[in-house]
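Thread: Newbie trying to understand structure tokens

Hi all, I'm a second-year student working on a class project, and my supervisor (Dr. K.) asked me to get a predicted structure for one chain before our next meeting. I've only ever worked with sequences, so writing a 3D structure as a token string is new to me. If someone could post the tokens and maybe explain what I'm looking at, I'd be very grateful. Here's the chain:
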Amino acid sequence: MSGTNEEHVKHVVIVTGGAIHPSVHPIIDQADMLIGADRGADYLLQHGYTPDLALGDFDSVEPDRSSYIEANSLRFIGVDAIDKNFTDTELAYKAAAEANAGRVTMLGATGTRMDHTLANIHLLRQALADGIEMCLIDDHNSIHLIDRSITLAKEHYHYLSLLPLSLEVTGIQLSGFQYPLDNATLTLGQSLAVSNQWEEEQGTVSIKDGLLLVIRSHD
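---
Reply by user tm_fold:
Sure, no problem. This is what the structure looks like when written as tokens:
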């Protein structure tokens, strides 16, 4: 982990219990603070990383692993699996916000449980309201939520898709992509802006009103 200074935007990486691929390890290496949520903490320890904070009910790991996680993390918070109001991932996000994160990258937030995947995508709304730059990254996708604009590099992604998270998104402008949009409107349920392709090495998406998911992806 790298140190922080007053001008540095604190980057918190949250590793939670969904699908994780070694390709995301360079992101872990860039973290100022590492939070492992439930099985995500076990993943970190198994791959040579020490969580600054491990938290959750740890119902996804064996009891002996829970004890190991507690003993080998810098800080440990156990919560009751039944008597809690938030998922472990949301608790990890709240801990990142309390730690004054300026940027949060969430790994392992997608996977076989669609309910958890969608709940984690919806956490982007909370981060936006808190003024925290946040994205969800897995081996195939990078997911952001905007209410104004974002400029993103193409990197290794082939596609860019736009999906409303609000009932309507208006004033959509695109630059740097094969299929441009100029003052377009998307309503919830439309697939008009799925699978656009990059024309330049970076592109900009801006909107006037609404909440828009911006998803870079590759097969």
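A couple of things are worth pointing out once you decode it. DSSP finds five helices and 14 strands in the chain. Residues 128 and 191 are 23 Å apart (CA to CA). Feel free to ask follow-ups in this thread.
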